[in-house]
Design brief:
By secondary structure, this protein is an alpha/beta fold. It contains nine helices and 14 strands. The chain has helices spanning 41-48, 53-63, 129-133, 136-148, 165-176, 190-195, 225-234, 257-269, 285-293; strands at residues 2-6, 15-19, 29-39, 76-84, 96-100, 111-115, 119-122, 156-160, 180-185, 200-203, 216-221, 239-247, 276-281, 300-304. Helix 4 (136-148) crosses helix 5 (165-176).
């Protein structure tokens, strides 16, 4: 099968297309014919080992010393199950699915084997493979942190970085929960964020969010602390008494199957719209990583796997 191999940590050019053996499912596993995946910011961090120096040693121990122990990166997929191992009861050959696995990787390939207990659910019929691949990463992370912040109807929520993969999902989900959402993003993304349900959008290139009169029950940093350090310091200026400040870098999210099923339901009802900036073929993976690494994508960057 065709796959993208990461043979060393480094710039996007360390990613190479190669022919590798097609995996066979073992007991309890399903093999998925990958039709679409996505390049996430987490993929870029792993590929470049672009982490705080304090955590780089631990990352090498966990991921691999000189290169990723699993050389095929990729965490999300949409496709169909084409083979099942013994003992599989949750799925059958031909099932159309989408999902997320941040530990096994492997989706930058034509086939991948995942355990049947993975975060894997039926793909809604109203979504293409590309649209389905744009949901799990940002959707699951946004849902986790909104739950953790106990966002509820009637609250005022500010989403900093509202135009990224996590941000576009957070805006829609918070609005679905009945919150009054303010999004912070760049000028070119103002209309996009407003269309996703934000009642107010702050263009950070023209306006400082911390100087407004609004007070928020929740400040959600959807970008990450390295890029949002200044904004996180200013967050206390806009928090209401008892308000919460939370970042996507706070702790390790616990992602569960029920939440992915909820995202699928919301996609069916139209309450969650996948946002796709660009679509690349598998052969364009280097350029896709370069674009995502630039930090200015809108929503998600999807890769099709023929």
């Amino acid at each position: 099968m065709r796959a993208v191999i990461c043979s060393a940590y480094g710039p996007p050019e360390v990613l190479k297309l190669a022919d590798v053996p097609t995996p066979a499912p073992t007991a309890g596993e399903v093999r998925i014919r990958v039709r679409a995946t996505a390049v996430t910011s987490s993929d870029c961090y792993v590929r470049a080992l672009d982490l705080d120096p304090r955590y780089r040693l631990l990352a090498r121990l966990a991921l691999g010393w000189k290169a990723p122990r699993q050389p095929i990166l990729g965490m999300v997929l949409s496709g169909e199950i084409d083979a099942v191992g013994s003992g599989v009861t949750h799925f059958s050959e031909g099932d159309v699915v989408f999902g997320f696995d941040r530990h096994r990787f492997g989706t930058y390939a034509q086939y991948v084997c995942w355990p049947q207990e993975a975060l894997l659910v039926s793909r809604p019929a109203n979504l293409t493979n590309e649209e389905a691949a744009a949901i799990p990463y940002g959707g699951l992370l946004a849902l986790h942190f909104l739950r953790r912040a106990e966002v509820a109807a009637g609250q005022h929520v500010l989403v900093y970085g509202a135009s990224g993969a996590v941000g576009t999902s957070a805006v829609q989900l918070a609005a679905k929960f009945g919150a009054h959402v303010t999004g912070v993003c760049g000028a070119s993304n103002v209309e996009l964020v407003r269309s996703l349900g934000a009642e107010r959008v702050v263009d950070y290139t023209r306006e400082e969010f911390s100087t407004g009169s609004g007070r928020f029950d929740v400040f959600l940093d959807a970008v990450g602390k390295r890029k949002s350090a200044s904004a996180l310091r200013k967050a206390k200026l806009v928090l209401a008494p008892g308000g919460r400040r939370i970042s996507v870098d706070d702790g390790t999210p616990k992602l569960v199957l029920d939440e992915l099923e909820l995202l699928a339901e919301l996609a069916v009802s139209g309450d969650l719209r996948p946002v796709i900036d660009r679509v690349y073929p598998l052969e364009g993976i280097v350029e896709a990583h370069r674009y995502v690494g630039g930090g200015h994508k809108k929503g998600n960057v999807v890769v099709t796997v023929d």
